[in-house]
């Protein structure tokens, strides 16, 4: 049994009770250092395998070997597995040689939606924190804004950060008047910047930042004129 569990972002309060039970009952808990640190208060006798970008393939091979030896293994993911976590999930499944279970967590995008009060129905989520060709995702971001939707964007350290996202969009004819917010270190030492897309260009933020670009006009709620 091996399960990939969303934990955080940033704080144990944002781990589901089901996830906490699986971690507490596991023989092996693995993940990136920063994410394992979030669940560390739940660790007692578990074997802990921490990793970074450079050694993740090698470390996951070790976790897969323990899984195949019959150990109950958990791999913890930052936030929700299903937003900007699928490439790491693919690495886990490649190491194991088969599909694995996932348990959803709470994404930084959800925490941002709560802080900034935006409705999922009217918002598109995009991540640039991924390997591979970003061109289709960039085009999609421009189209989302043209369609009058909000966008919640995970930038890519360090070549497509919020300021670069703004520069890209402005260069594609998107209005500089869109309201934008950058939230850093959600659930920890939170910081917020608010302004327009035009003002965002050239600004710098940490790698723990997530960007909201609001539609130029809020969508009708659908309740106007209710009888
Ligand atoms: C590889 S993505 C993983 C996202 C994660 N799966 C989620 O659902 O939040 C990592 C990026 O998510 C964003 N992120 C994660 N936790 C955050 C937090 N507490 N505050 C702000 N941004 C965060 C940052 O942009 C970070 O570089």
From TrEMBL:
Q: Which domain of life is it from?
A: Bacteria
Q: Which UniProt keywords apply?
A: Cobalamin biosynthesis, Methyltransferase, S-adenosyl-L-methionine, Transferase
Which residues belong to any copy of the Tetrapyrrole methylase domain? Answer: 1-200
Family annotation (Pfam families)? TP_methylase
What pathway annotation does it carry?
Cofactor biosynthesis; adenosylcobalamin biosynthesis
Q: Could you tell me which CDD domains the record lists for this protein?
A: Precorrin-6Y-MT
User: Which NCBIfam families does the protein's record reference?
Assistant: PRK05787.1-5
Protein name in the entry: Tetrapyrrole methylase domain-containing protein
Could you tell me which species this protein originates from? Deinococcus caeni
């Amino acid at each position: 049994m091996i399960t990939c569990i969303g934990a955080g972002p940033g704080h144990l309060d944002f781990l589901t009770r089901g996830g906490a039970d699986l971690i507490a009952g596991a023989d092996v808990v693995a993940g990136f250092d920063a994410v394992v640190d979030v669940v560390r208060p739940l660790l007692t006798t578990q074997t802990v395998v921490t990793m970074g970008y450079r050694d993740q393939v090698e470390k996951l091979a070790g976790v897969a070997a323990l899984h195949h030896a019959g150990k109950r293994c958990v791999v913890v993911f930052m936030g929700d597995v299903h937003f900007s976590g699928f490439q790491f999930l693919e690495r886990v499944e490649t190491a194991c040689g088969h599909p694995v279970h996932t348990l959803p967590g709470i994404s930084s995008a959800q925490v941002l939606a709560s802080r900034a009060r935006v409705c999922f129905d009217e918002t598109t989520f995009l991540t640039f924190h991924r390997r591979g060709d970003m061109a289709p995702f960039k085009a999609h971001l421009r189209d989302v804004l043209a369609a009058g939707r909000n966008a919640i964007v995970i930038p890519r350290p360090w070549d497509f950060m919020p300021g670069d996202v703004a520069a890209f969009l402005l260069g594609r004819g998107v209005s500089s008047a869109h309201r934008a917010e950058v939230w850093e270190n959600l659930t920890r030492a939170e910081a917020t910047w608010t302004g327009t897309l035009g003002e965002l260009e050239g600004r710098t933020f940490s790698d723990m930042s997530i960007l909201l670009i609001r539609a130029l006009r809020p969508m009708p709620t659908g309740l106007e004129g209710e009888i």
